[in-house]
Amino acid sequence: MRASLLKWALAVPAGAFLIVFLVWPLFGVVTEAFSDGGSAFGRLADDPVFWRGLVGSAVLGTLAPFVSTVVGLGVSLHLARLSPARRTMLLTVIAVPLSFSGLVVAYGFILVFGRSGFVTMLLADLGADPAVVGGLIYTPAGLAIAYCYYLIPRAVLVIFPVVANFETEQVHAARALGASPLRAFRDILLPQVAPACLVAFALCAAVALGAYGTALALSGTQIAILPMVLYSKISDSGADLPAAAAMSIVLIALACTVMAIAELVRPRVRRTA
Which of 110, 91, 96, 69 is nearest to 206 (CA)? Predict the structure, then answer.
């Protein structure tokens, strides 16, 4: 009886929290999107800014997660070779960026790589044009690098447990049989960590698709990605709230689709391995 009451005592607040802060806001977004009979989706389909934002989000949501996953795999391989004490220390340091907001990351990049940043001035002393070097972080490529700053820790935290539990004797056996280091990595290690890499990529892609603070601080609405297009529709005078809600649904659908594809493909990758 007491155990049952305890379960209800824990379940009721958790359920109420989910309803108030997850279900209710989503219901409000869906209701607003269809408040004019669904014509908001038609306006989006005819809006070239929306399509530019969709393409920009697709490129950014692919490039930054891919780089983050590759770097995360390399960092995980290095961490697996360290002693437990050094490994724990470095994992703690790597996880620190996860506590930063997007605005903090953006301003940090501006202070270091901006037009008057430390690195920019250092390169200017070596003959580089500070206007060109300092302007790079305000481009889509610079935004992708800034995204990688807090996506790489996510990739490491997903991939590292799999790498840490990998039996290195398999690689040693392949090397003893004459396999090159590259072939041993490709044929032995990579297939076994591929499912974790796929999940890391999907997680990073979902985060990158909805990231907002870093893009706002670095580029404002100059770079066409869906979160910035959504922001402009809400902040401009005469805001089109139904269209903004419809765009929110598109963003949610994209993120959910990426995660769902990863979950569907991961068992096949594991069976192939």
Answer: 69
Q: pTM for this structure?
A: 0.86
Q: How many CB atoms lie within 10 A of CB 101?
A: 12
Token readout for 75 is: 């960092």
Neighbours of 70 (CB within 10 A): 15
Q: Are 265 and 199 in contact (CB under 8 A)?
A: no
DSSP codes of every residue in 156-214:
HHHHHHHHHTS-THHHHHHHHTT--HHHHIIIIIHHHHHHHHHHHHHHHHHHHHH--HH
Q: What angle is formed at CA 241 by the lines to CA 235 and CA 246, rounded to 5 degrees?
A: 115
CA-derived radius of gyration, the chain: 23
Each residue's pLDDT expressed in tens, for the chain with a length of 273 residues: 566 676 777 788 888 888 888 888 888 888 988 888 888 888 888 989 899 999 999 999 999 999 999 999 999 999 988 888 899 999 999 988 888 888 888 888 888 888 888 888 888 888 888 888 888 888 888 889 889 998 999 999 999 999 988 877 787 788 777 878 788 888 888 888 898 999 999 999 999 998 888 888 887 767 888 888 888 888 765 578 888 899 999 998 998 888 888 888 777 666 655
> How far is residue 201's CA from residue 269's CA, in Å, rounded to a whole number?
14
Contact by Cβ (8 Å): 162, 234: no
Among residues 196, 195, 197, 200, the alpha carbon closest in space to that of 272 is found at: 195
Superfamily of domain 49-272 in the CATH hierarchy: MetI-like (1.10.3720.10)
Are 204 and 68 in contact by the 8 Å Cβ rule? The answer is: yes
- What count of residues does the chain have? 273
Would you give the DSSP letter of residue 207?
H
